[in-house]
């Protein structure tokens, strides 16, 4: 019974760690800077997300700016949860917290721009509470 549990747990962890292999291969569009940067942003590159958002902000495309800046600004705890199905006579499975070693406080530049967008109401209604939320994340 223990061996089955360890086998299931190992499979779940292995599959969870392989999730990154399912991301698009950005090297195929390396010659096209815009496509390459967007591919990197979609794969979770915070700097690429911030750069796309900042560029859209400068161009006053606030909808696009908000989309990418929010993604870049979001902190990541560095943990994920996996489900372990019931074993033997157990009725319920369990969840296990796994450290993925990728904790990140969020991109401070994106948080700063978001604070400005919400404070000034650029493309959105002014929202002092959201502006303050992003300002606090930057530590300012």
What does this protein structure show overall?
With 140 residues, the chain is mostly helical. The protein has a single domain, classed as Serine Threonine Protein Phosphatase 5, Tetratricopeptide repeat, CATH 1.25.40. The protein is 54% helix and 9% strand. It has six helices and two strands, in the order ααααββαα. The chain has a two-stranded antiparallel sheet with strand order 1-2. Helix 3 packs antiparallel against helix 4 and helix 4 packs across helix 5 (108-120). It is extended and about 60 Å long. Residues 16-21 have low confidence and may be disordered.
Which short descriptors sum up this protein?
140 residues, mainly alpha, Serine Threonine Protein Phosphatase 5, Tetratricopeptide repeat, two-stranded antiparallel ribbon, 6 helices, 2 strands, extended
Shape: extended
Query: What radius of gyration results from the CA coordinates?
Result: 20 Å
Task: Note the beta-strand portion.
Answer: 5-15%
The run of helices and strands is HHHHEEHH
Number of strands: 2
Give the structural class. Answer: mainly alpha
Topology of helices and strands:
Blueprint: H1 2-17, H2 33-42, H3 46-58, H4 62-73, E1 79-84, E2 94-99, H5 108-120, H6 128-138
Antiparallel strand pairs: 1-2
Helix pairs in contact: 2-3, 3-4, 4-5, 5-6
């Amino acid at each position: 019974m223990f061996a089955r549990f360890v086998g299931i747990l190992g499979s779940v962890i292995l599959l969870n760690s392989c999730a990154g292999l399912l991301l698009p291969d950005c090297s195929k569009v390396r010659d096209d800077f815009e496509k390459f940067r967007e591919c990197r942003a979609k794969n979770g590159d915070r700097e690429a997300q911030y750069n796309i958002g900042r560029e859209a902000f400068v161009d006053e495309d606030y909808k696009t700016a908000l989309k990418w800046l929010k993604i870049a600004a979001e902190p990541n705890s560095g943990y994920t949860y996996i489900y372990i199905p019931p074993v033997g006579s157990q009725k319920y499975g369990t969840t296990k917290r796994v450290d993925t070693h990728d904790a990140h406080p969020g991109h401070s530049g994106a948080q700063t721009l978001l604070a400005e967008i919400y404070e000034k109401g650029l493309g959105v209604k002014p929202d002092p509470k959201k502006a303050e939320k992003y300002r606090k994340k930057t530590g300012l």
